[in-house]
Amino acid sequence: MPDTNSPALPKTALVLPGGGARGAFQVGVLKAVAELCPRGTINPFPIISGTSAGAVNAVVLASKARRFRVAAAELEHVWGNFRCDQVYRTDGWTMFRSSVRWMMSMISGGLVRFPPSMLDNSPLRALLSRNVRFPRIQTALDSGWLEAVAITAAGYASARSTSFFQAAPNHPDWSRTRRQGIRTRLNLDHVMGSIAVPMMFPPVRIRGEYFGDGAMRQATPLSPAIHLGADRILVIGIRNEMADRTPDASHPQAYPTFAQIAGYTLDALFMDGLYSDLERMTRINQMLDAVPDDEETGVLAEMRAIDTMVIVPSDDLREVAYDYRKELPMAVRALFRGIGGGRSTEGRLLSYLLFESEYTRALIDLGYKNAMSVKDELRAFISAEPVARLFAPSWVQHDLVAVHGDLRDTSSRFIA
């Protein structure tokens, strides 16, 4: 496979959006990519951008950029052996105390302070502190195995999407309306801030400001990769695009439970921005393609093409999660039932919180299967070979959804 860090070849970026436990699907795709690369291959993605659970996968890949197969294998080992108590505290006393504090806060009129979050994710901080060697990211940059890695979080005070990035010296900060890129040395706080799902996990203080899940303000998830110089972008999503059936008007639906609303909110939080960004890029590309090359002047002449490939699950992860619902710890199941999470319609929320190995292994297997079903296209994409040109995403609902496009970026005016 060609050295994708060579300046003569397109720079391929890897974009890993958030998704809680659904992040295991990304690991399955990365496992397939590792098998498609020759043994000993360094990281084939010079630019890596991650948000929320995708930020965890991003820093692991960046810190082990010298040996991509080893990084993918380590991710598979960790995700394939997950337990909920490695991510958030699941003991009965913690669950009971959290429930009581929330109830007392609501009925006391503020005399009892609301807890910072519904769940305590200190076990995940401990797990990541043992397994991620952040100083190795700079080693990878200095050695040329990596050009940039970005982690996105949302500032509660500034109401801005902030991409904290560690990169080669030629990458400057950027600032746009409600979003910015800040060069820094990445550490565990950046990751914990990026994964701090509102209400679920506590916000994290960075540079004097509290940050929460990066998906909250990330209207343009592809922007960090584009700012950091990507010519190609591989996106590994965590939601298929099969539309739900419209309810039968003759059979009134039950009032939505808290669990159903929370799951819907997380679904919109993690993925709607990504698909809107892809569609926006496609529309811009269509507009630009209508202009003959010899008439591209001014801003148009400065635009560059960006090839994209998107991989999302072929199966509905809500249904997969519901099949494994009994794997949740008993105390968590009790809390989950208390907020209305006992019906099949609440599989959406469950699919984000079910950090149990039976479920995560199923997602890893699905991601691997989906990626290998288009292994030739995937190998060509990460090898910087020509790809098929489409001007609008083609969401093909078979074994895999893959989008190839010749998309264009204006660096600042439209997308980045």
Helicity level? 25-40%
Termini separation comes to: 29 Å
**Proportion of residues in extended strands:** 15-25%
Shape: globular
Poorly predicted regions are 388-416
Whole-angstrom Rg:
21 Å
Give structural notes.
The protein has 416 residues and is α/β, with parallel strands linked by helices. It has helices at residues 23-36, 53-63, 68-80, 92-107, 122-131, 135-143, 188-194, 223-227, 258-289, 317-323, 330-338, 347-353, 357-372, 375-382; strands spanning 12-16, 47-51, 148-155, 161-167, 174-176, 179-183, 204-206, 209-213, 232-236, 304-312, 401-409. Strands 1, 2, 3, 4, 5, 6, 7, 8, 9, 10 and 11 form an eleven-stranded mixed beta sheet that branches.
In a few lines, what is going on in this structure?
Strand 7 and strand 8 form a beta hairpin. By secondary structure, the protein is α/β, with parallel strands linked by helices.
Reconstruct the topology from this structure.
Blueprint: E1 12-16, H1 23-36, E2 47-51, H2 53-63, H3 68-80, H4 92-107, H5 122-131, H6 135-143, E3 148-155, E4 161-167, E5 174-176, E6 179-183, H7 188-194, E7 204-206, E8 209-213, H8 223-227, E9 232-236, H9 258-289, E10 304-312, H10 317-323, H11 330-338, H12 347-353, H13 357-372, H14 375-382, E11 401-409
Parallel strand pairs: 1-2, 1-9, 2-3, 4-6, 9-10
Antiparallel strand pairs: 3-4, 3-8, 5-6, 7-8, 10-11
Helix pairs in contact: 1-3, 1-13, 2-3, 4-11, 9-12, 10-12
